[in-house]
Known about the structure:
Elements: E1 8-12, H1 16-27, E2 31-35, H2 39-47, E3 51-53, H3 56-60, E4 65-68, H4 73-81, E5 95-98, H5 104-115, E6 120-123, E7 126-127, H6 129-134, E8 138-142, H7 146-159, E9 160-165, H8 172-200, H9 205-212, H10 220-231, H11 240-257, H12 262-279, H13 287-295
Parallel strand pairs: 1-2, 1-4, 2-3, 4-5, 5-6, 8-9
Antiparallel strand pairs: 7-8
Amino acid sequence: MPGQTKPRVAVIGLGSMGFGMATSLLRAGFEVTGCDVAEDSIARFVQGGGKGAKTPKEAADGADIVVSVVVNAAQTETILFGEHGVAGTLPKGSVFVSSATMDPDVARRLAVKLEATGRHYLDAPISGGAQRAAQGELTILASGSAAAFAKARPALDAMAAKLYELGDAAGQGAAFKMINQLLAGVHIAAASEAIAFAAKQGLDIRKVYEVITASAGNSWMFENRMPHVLDGDYTPRSAVEIFVKDLGIIQDMARNAKFPVPVSAAALQMFLMTAAAGMGRDDDASVARMYARVTGTKLPGEKN
């Protein structure tokens, strides 16, 4: 409606994804308060026109929508119900949008606990990377009540190019995201194995990249991650430890369902080996470096 005030939004977690989401909301004309454990991230957001808060509780005070963009379920629960959590100050009828990747059972438990207090919970994991987050072009895999969707929709529309409404209760969005993460982790591990094996064969890996990205063996992850290997640049866009966590969740889910997932189990071991070799906080394409170091294969930027 003309003259209608946009909802007030708090974004908790101003990392590579959260910062882009928060700036997309600002660009769309929302009043946005950002919160992060890193003070320099808050200062950067304020410099860009946003407001800053030192705690989630402070950020959520008076907010219509809280968007939580943290790493895992434990952090999400702390943001909700911890000492400085949002549940106590978030107005009744407001919505908490959870974007962390987590076990669907945990998403359901958090939703039940928050909704019992008169607030809404939207299970809304994200996909697309930091660049698409900054452009407001994420894919959001969401599930929750009709009321939660209605309350969150203005912010979702500002952050996403594709919004999938996947069910009327929390947990469905999380489950869809875990299927995505299974594939993403397997594809990164396979791409890393292939590029390192190509280098071991003495092939020009830049030419390998050119050929594979124009051939049936290509994947989105091969095309997106292998340039990091070609450039010898393992600055973390998405860290190895993310897939240690996510593929670990897949194993837990599969064990509970008595469903075999041998390919993702093998990929998890590749990420675990990479993390054990000291590269856990590096870019997830570092799996290629792990292969190279084990086999004495030369990759760009590596000493062996």
